[in-house]
Amino acid sequence: VDEDVLILGENGTGKEVAANYYYVNSQRFGMPFQTILCSSPNESLIERELFGKERTAADPQDRGTIGLFEKCSEGILFLDEVTNLSTQSQSKILRAVENKEIQVVGGTVKQVNTRLIYTSNADLNTLADSTRIRRDFYSRIEGNVIHIPPLRERDDDILLLMSYFITSYANSYH
Questions:
Q1: Is the Cβ–Cβ distance between 43 and 88 less than 8 Å?
Q2: 7 by DSSP, 3-state: which?
């Protein structure tokens, strides 16, 4: 389905692999697909990355930037570890999702049609009671949840992974 998705799982469970699989099998395959790691401590950098920055007339060197929401309009934006975002950034993303519009930093409002994939290593119960995530933002993203269990709970996958790596290394090293 063409919906936003929240992928939950411990570190190393394959959330990014699942996000790529979702993209490849979505109606938006072939359209832009971008990833942003939401762990940056610099809030203004994250906002410029997501929403873009208008060119300033005072500085001829400043060409402005197009944000990932705009680049991925009609495509998919992958927000890795979304719970690391500040509540202010969460509210701006929420507005973009609900209204399908973004506010470019220092600029205008633009219409976007961006589908989002969110990931987090926190479990759903922790997110529901967390102060790290806004309640309205949580309500919006918890509708379509994919939980990826850790490898220790997926015994059959161990043999598949072993086969893949043995074959891959055997071919690489003859």
A1: yes
A2: strand
**Helix H or strand E encompassing 158:** helix 155-173
Question: Taking the model in full, what pTM does it have?
Answer: 0.84
What digits encode the pLDDT tens for the residues 61-109? 667 789 999 999 999 999 999 888 888 888 899 999 999 999 998 888 9
Q: Is the dihedral angle over the CA atoms 140, 138, 122, 41 positive or is it negative?
A: positive
Measured on CA atoms in the order 34, 141, 138, 53, is the torsion positive or negative?
A: positive
The pair of structure tokens assigned to 102 is 């973004």
Q: How far is CA 155 from CA 40, 64, 127, in A?
A: 35, 49, 27
